[in-house]
Amino acid sequence: FPVTIGGFTWPLAELNVSLGPVRQGDLVVVGARPETGKTTFASHVVGHVLAKHSEVTDKRPIIYVGNEERSIKVMFRIYQSYFGINAETLERDLAHYEGQFASCVGDRLRVLADDSGITNVRQLSRLFKEFNPSLIVFDQLDKVYGFERESDREDLRIGKLYQWARELAKEYGPVIALS
Question: Is 170:25 a contact under the CB 8 Å cutoff?
Fold first, then answer.
């Protein structure tokens, strides 16, 4: 998707009206109570961006860092959004949709979910430098570690973490952080 003046659009019209397109330098923080659909929202955004902004010449990958769900569950939701289908339709022919997604998207998506073991600022920074992502999604940014010290309070750790995310948005592309 574009990381230029136009940015990318949201999958929900209301967000396009209220927030406008998301561009490089933007840090979008989505906060909600547990079990209210944050992971579904994030995977919907990723599926939408991959489907609707595939014509863009910027082929840098999207990196989805999920600290809540296993990667297979996240991918299932991304497939649903990408193809615009419900779970029952996807389950009936999962292999077909997986193959079609792989063929269309290729290596433009990297999902690091709860089962990846990569939850440290240092590890993630190396990964971002290597892949130069066009969009970074953190499903539970608060569960990324690397700024804590014995003397630091949790609020100070979180503050440093969100400042780091802001710097990532400036360097690579928009960052969407769920909390």
Answer: yes
Give the E-state strand segments of the chain in sequence order: 27-30, 62-66, 109-112, 135-139, 175-178
SS3 129: helix
What parts of the chain have a pLDDT lower than 70?
Answer: 1-6, 54-58, 114-116, 150-151
pLDDT tens-digit series, residues 137-155: 999 999 899 887 766 788 8
How far apart CA 48 and CA 93 sit, in angstroms, is: 21
User: How many C-alpha atoms does 90 have within 13 Å on its Cβ side?
Assistant: 17
The CA dihedral of 151, 152, 154, 159, to the nearest 10 degrees, is 180
Residue 25 CB: number of other CB atoms within 10 A? 15
What does the CA dihedral 179, 47, 64, 88 come to, rounded to 10 degrees? 80
Residues in the chain: 179
Contacts of 72 (CB under 8 A, 6+ apart): 113
Give pTM, 2 decimals: 0.90
| Exposed/middle/buried for residue 125 (C-beta within 10 Å: 0-12, 13-18, 19+) | middle
131-164 exposure pattern, b = at least 16 Cβ within 10 A, e = fewer: bebbbbbbbbbbebeeeeeeeeeeeebbebbbeb
